[in-house]
Amino acid sequence: MSRDPFSFEGDRVLLLDQTLLPDREETIEVRDALQMADAIARLAVRGAPAIGIAAALALAVEAARDGSAATRLGRLEDAGKILVASRPTAVNLTWAVERILGAARRALARDPDLDGERLAALVREEALAIWEEDRAASRAMAAHGADLFPAASRFLTHCNTGALATGGGGTALAVLLELHRRRPGGIEVWATETRPLLQGARLTAWELREAGVPFRLIADSAAAHTILRGGIEGVLVGADRIARNGDAANKIGTLGLALAAQAAGVPFVVVAPTSTIDPAIPDGASIAVEARAAEEVTAIRGMRLAPTGIRAENPAFDVTPSRWIGAIVTERGVFRGPPYELGGPVDTKPGP
Ligand code: MRU
Q1: Which ligand 1 atom sits nearest the alpha carbon of residue 194?
Q2: For a designed S-S bond to 169, which of 43, 64, 138, 210 qualifies (C-beta 3.0 to 4.6 A apart)?
């Protein structure tokens, strides 16, 4: 059974603390934007679509507090800045915050006498719409992505792109679950552990086991070997930000998988909702790569592995040039490339 990463209770958001999974299933209560920004920054909630929805729900909580519509909008503007600053790479976060703020600003511009409660209701509806649209996007991506692989059976995936990372069933992982649903026993998945924070070992392994999909966990360092020598027929990953030309930022290690897939002649496919496409940037050069704490590399869950006093580097994402991406699956259809031009209408050429 897949688990939603959050639930919305009007005056608070409950988050499943993903830093503790799979050992403990504990819920955190979030009552304002500051608490949500902290939860996003420390990856209690993570995955590009999920952090966008979580931010939108935090804004709905902020909007529900007392005040005139103008006061509440001012509070939302401040809260939006805090939320957007919590993680820099996933564009879904900025996209969701801007969408909520845009709706609130337009409502107040249309009706300067708007009641504060009405503004709060409107923000809540917009946040729930973002969540619902992502749920539907997951279903559509799963179907489009599965259509690309009518016969292949051996897949490799990276990080966690399942229900925990989105508002629905997931992105790349949802495609694999859909293939398993269509052909029970017909697919097998190799999941990378995804150091430093082990989203693959902790979260993807948990979700695949719950779904009953045959899979094996591999060390990140085994991925190239598995792709070149292990008979992998498709590498499926998610994305945190995709430029107009198809360059895609995703969890650190994705770039190496793309290179290995290219060398092996294996399809490398990115699965992401259109909320992950950043139409403002022409290519991946301007994507900000989040630098996280060195301790995440020198230690695992607080247990130090490396000698003290050393320097470590911890880029959380890398950017795969679109020339190594064979297809980008969105809820609106499949972009076949390279080259890609994602600013325009979606090209939905079917099949591989
Ligand atoms: O640092 P994380 O765990 O938020 O990174 C998540 C990823 O890189 C995912 O692949 C990406 O957000 C797509 S999730 C559907």
Answers
A1: 3
A2: 138
| CB 189 within 8 Å of CB 176 | yes
Q: How far is residue 21's CA from residue 337's CA, in Å, rounded to a whole number? A: 37
pLDDT tens, position by position, 4-23: 999 999 999 999 999 999 99
The amino acid at residue 287 is I
Average pLDDT, whole number, for the chain? Answer: 96
Q: State pLDDT tens for residues 9-66.
A: 999 999 999 999 999 999 999 999 999 999 999 999 999 999 999 999 999 999 999 9
Give the C-alpha distances (Å, rounded to integers) separating 210 from 46, 142, 162, 173, 203.
19, 18, 12, 13, 11
Catalytic residue among 4, 220, 240, 247: 240
Angle at the Cα of 79 from the Cα atoms of 77 and 80, rounded to 5 degrees: 65
Cα 307 to ligand 1 centroid, rounded to whole Å: 29
DSSP track, 111-151: -TT--HHHHHHHHHHHHHHHHHHHHHHHHHHHHHHHHT-SS
Which atom, in ligand 1's list, is nearest to the CA of 276? 13
The ligand 1 atom nearest the CA atom of 162 = 15
Residues 6+ apart with CB under 8 A from 307: none
Is the C-beta atom of 126 inside 6 A of ligand 1? no
Under 8 Å between Cβ of 213 and 200: no
Specify whether 187 is located in the same domain as 284: yes
For ligand 1, is residue 236 a contact (CB within 6 Å)?
Answer: no
Total number of domains constituting the chain = 2
Confidence (pLDDT) at 43:
98
Q: In what order do the strands lie in the sheet with 248-251?
A: 241-242, 248-251, 317-320
Residue 308 has pLDDT above 60, yes or no: yes
Domain that holds residue 225: 139-336
Same domain, 232 and 301: yes
At 75-126, the pLDDT tens digits run: 999 999 999 999 999 999 999 999 999 999 999 999 999 999 999 999 999 9
Q: Is the dihedral of CA 215, 218, 268, 159 positive or negative?
A: positive
Residues 133 and 156 in one domain: no
